Amino acid sequence: MNKNILITGGSKGIGYGTAKYLLERDGYTVVLVARDEQGMNELRDRYPAKVFVVPFDLTEHDKIEEIFKFCLAHNLKLDGMLHAAGISEDIPLRAVDSSDMKRTFDINYFAAVQLGRFFSMKKYSSTGASAIYMSSLASYMAESSMSQYVASKCAVNALVKVMAKEGVRRKLRINAIAPGFVDTRMTWRERDFLEDFEENLIIKQPFGVIPIEQIACLVEFLLSERSAFITGAIIPVTGGQGIGG
Prior knowledge:
Distance between the termini: 46 Å
Number of strands: 7
Helix content: 25-40%
Number of helices: 8
Shape: globular
Strand content: 15-25%
Radius of gyration: 17 Å
Structural class: alpha/beta
């Protein structure tokens, strides 16, 4: 049975990598959402029958239903959703202003709320559908200069718990994945600022940087019937962070 999956942040990083992972397997059609069309178009060119592209700015919260109307117009009732779009800015608390906070929350949390709102509607999603949000291990292990990012991911965790309760009647499963350092641009850009970043990363996360495929296969599990009894969970992928001495 084919599954229709909506993926935000589909042009790069975890969103792109997960979409590629699913498309390499049978049974998935993906709807990719991002501002940058290049990565999405690459996947559409490679899998023209299985990829739909929706160029969209997720900060336009009052227009987010247009994404779901697009799916409906193309007979794509959703069986799953991955909200992988997100931003992270390292700003010391003393330097944070309201525009910094708004920029982070616009994508990481407010867009997540609106996506969940429409995903939960019967006309847009199937009974028993699965929504997955990308949280972060930082929501448990706060770091300096990450106040608004950590707060936004804590808000996502709370949203998942509430959505899971509200989705029980339709057997919607709502979960989050909270990884440590993943092999994305968001992680590796730190090298531009910290000379000993890679050495410190291994000290902090002994297993090393998490390959995107590790996150993608967990997403696939949460989309599948094998996780039919899992909802309201925030699943950490630590890479050894915070384990033992």
